């Protein structure tokens, strides 16, 4: 290994410094406070100044951590998308792409089972707030891009060939089923488990 490669490898494995850890701590606190206020008062009924005041930051300082109020709600979705993609890649090769996608979504359904009321409130807020729905859709497009390479591998096609539409179709359809299940879950107040509704939604396309 060359010196430059060794330095790059060491940099990649270097733990975050104090400044990065403090920044992550502040971001986590802002998200917790913001979500509580959003759920209590509604997204549009909560101001940035209220959130900043509760965490002891100025409005300008708060916007150095989050570009928009919507980001405070959705900042964790990119990480969630990465977790789903990792779960998909870890599924056995004996599973077909559709079954592997369903099982990868267990990352979400199992997390929801741990705090169902909190998740219901969160999803209800997303569905009832137009600006959040639009940004959530953008985030899910990034999820789709994360899933497509593994689906392409399982289909035996190249993800770099635009004429190979299978990976896009399957990942997009799976995410549409996830949205349908989440909408139904909120509508029934969580009386039917999200995992059951997701099974029904994805099963509809294989009947």
Automatic annotation (TrEMBL):
* SUPFAM superfamilies, per database record: Homeodomain-like
Q: What UniProt keywords are attached to this protein's entry?
A: DNA-binding, Transcription, Transcription regulation
Q: Where is this region: Disordered?
A: 1-21
Q: Give the source's domain of life in one word.
A: Bacteria
UniProt DNA-binding region: 47-66
User: Which InterPro entries does the protein's record reference?
Assistant: DNA-bd_HTH_TetR-type_CS, Homeodomain-like_sf, HTH-type_TetR-like_transc_reg, HTH_TetR, MftR_C
Give the Polar residues compositional bias ranges. 1-13
Q: How is this protein named in the record?
A: TetR/AcrR family transcriptional regulator
